[in-house]
Amino acid sequence: MTSLEKVYIAVIGAGGVGSVFLSQLAQLTTRYPHLSLCLVSRSTKCLFVSSFAQSLSFDTWPHDLATSSQPVLSSPEIIEYLSNAPGKCVLVDNTSSQAVADSYPAFLQRGISVVTPNKKAFSGSWALWSDIFSAAYSPSKPTGGLVYHESSVGAGLPVISTLKELVETGDVVHHIEGVFSGTMSFLFNSFAPSDGSKGGKWSEEVKKAKSMGFTEPDPRDDLNGLDVARKLVILARLAGLKVESTSAFPVQSLIPKELENVSSGEEFLSRLGDFDDEMEKVKADAEKAGQVV
Fold first, then answer.
1. Confidence of residue 163 (pLDDT cuts 50, 70, 90)
2. Contacts of 102 (CB under 8 A, 6+ apart)
3. Active site residues
4. pTM of the prediction?
């Protein structure tokens, strides 16, 4: 059997999602030993091999990253670093960073493939969407990197690939329907159970969803309705519509006005309990009207 050429993988984002991904990748490398982990980075730490003949250890990367004194590389620096690899490279972006998303065209232009759940890259400006797919591989641009974002809608279910193939083979999409936020579905089912039981406090249910990995890194990205709007933009664009931005889909935010501009998701969660009574009123009003939240 002919041995496969090595594929060098760089991972940005090593928190909840990133750690699980790296665990899955470790299992994959037992079946596909040509996959080589060369870089792991988070906002304040970076770990990378000095020689592409080496590979980072899946057993010790958390400790190695935490104790690393290597410089944190910017996106342009990561592009230059990967461009020196002796084979194909893949960037796995596990963040929700707009700055990283903005750099995708540059990665793809250099032949570095991109795999990501980051919705901001595909639901931001139409210009960014166009730049990404103009830079990506196509028959007319064989040097471009591949781009996969299946998990940006549908939690990894084959929604995007199915829709893309339907459109490419000539089908016309008339409408798409479904539950577009598993996070909000979980929250509402916990906060106002369909069996009529009391349910928990809103702030506690949000914290529980965050601890279980159901929310975005900053839960405000779910509660402000933008997460759903981003998914709608992605699906609409794949269906052939030129949707300029998320503003095309009006949403109702569940973030108290007093907490809209707090500095972090952690501060938001710490203060959310002060507004539980407001959500209790929303639930009570819905029940009086024979509705549910």
1. very high
2. 121, 128
3. 231
4. 0.86
How far is the CA of 70 from the CAs of 48, 73, 78, 122, in angstroms? 8, 9, 13, 31
CA atoms of 143 and 156, how far apart (whole Å):
27
Contacts of 254 (CB under 8 A, 6+ apart): 223, 224, 225, 279
Task: Give me the phi and psi of 115, to 5 degrees please.
Answer: -125, 125
CA distance 222 to 169: 33
| pLDDT above 80 (res 195) | no
What is the per-residue DSSP string for 106-134? HHHHTT-EEE---THHHHS-HHHHHHHHH
Question: Considering only CA atoms, which of 217, 184, 269, 224 is closest in space to residue 97?
Answer: 217
- 30 alpha-carbon distance from chain centroid: 26
Q: Compute the distance between CA of residue 8 and CA of residue 257 in angstroms, rounded to an integer.
A: 45
Q: Is the pLDDT of residue 1 over 50?
A: no
